[in-house]
Each structure stands twice: as C-alpha cells, then as structure tokens.
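User: I've been trying to design a sequence by hand for this structure and keep getting stuck. Would you show me what you'd pick, starting by listing the structure so we're on the same page?

Assistant: Good idea, let's start from the same input. This is the structure you sent:
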C-alpha cells in the first residue's frame, strides 16, 4: 500500500482533472484540502508507525495509533471530525486574508 506521499500526488492529479471537468467549480482551494486530506488519511497511521520505529521512541504507541486509525469507527473520531473543523477554520481564515478565492463570490 503506498504511503501518504503517493496518495497526495494522486489527489492533486485527480483534483486537477476534476477542476478541468467542472469548469473550475472544483477550485484550487478544494484541490489543496483534498490533497491535505489524502496525506492525513488512514495512511498517517503507517507513517506514525514508521516514524516511531525510526526514532525508536514510542513504538508501541505508534503501532496502537496505526491500528486505531485504520479502524473505520476510530478514524472518524481521531482524524475525521478534528480535520473537518481544522479545514473549515483554515478555509475561513485563508479566504479572509485573500490567499484563497471564493468560487461563489461569498467572502466567508
């Protein structure tokens, strides 16, 4: 199974394709968060396990985290809801600063 890096590249490529097919309604803003979610998706458990074994610190914790993240129920609780709130807050902040453009023209 590929790690977070390849999944992020797949998300950016498919985000570009979706953006082209939707005449820009799926904007770079959507592609950015789609790619971030691909990085922080269920494979972040295997990344944390690799990091724990590389640093030889917290191997059992990293392994337990990887097992919990790969469970469909715990994934929603551990990463799904927190990332949803983080992406919402980050989108609002970046729209207010003018870094991202709103497709609909709404400022927030």
């Amino acid at each position: 199974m590929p790690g977070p890096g390849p999944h992020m590249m797949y998300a950016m490529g498919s985000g570009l394709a979706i953006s082209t097919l939707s005449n820009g309604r799926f904007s770079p803003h959507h592609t950015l968060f789609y790619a971030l979610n691909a990085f922080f998706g269920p494979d972040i458990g295997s990344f944390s396990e690799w990091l724990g074994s590389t640093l030889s610190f917290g191997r059992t914790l990293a392994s337990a985290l990887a097992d919990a993240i790969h469970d469909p129920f715990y994934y929603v609780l551990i990463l799904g809801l927190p990332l949803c709130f983080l992406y919402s807050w980050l989108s609002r902040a970046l729209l207010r600063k003018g870094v991202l453009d709103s497709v609909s023209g709404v400022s927030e």
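That's my pick for every position. To get oriented when you compare it with your attempt: The chain has one domain: 4-97. The chain has a mean pLDDT of 78.
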